[in-house]
Design brief:
mainly alpha
Length: 61
Amino acid sequence: MSRLLDLLEEERRKLNQLGEASLKQAIPLWDNPEVQEQSRRVDELVTRVSEMKARNNRVVR
């Protein structure tokens, strides 16, 4: 799971960088397809981490 968390942090950093660049260019985040795609990647990873944590909690109990 550590690798998944590292990947999530890396993808979040990329999203933040894209978001900052978009705002500097006065492009709304919702109008920037790169930001939207990266946001979807982050969302998918957050979902995977949440599912893994839920599975681990069920096994421990």
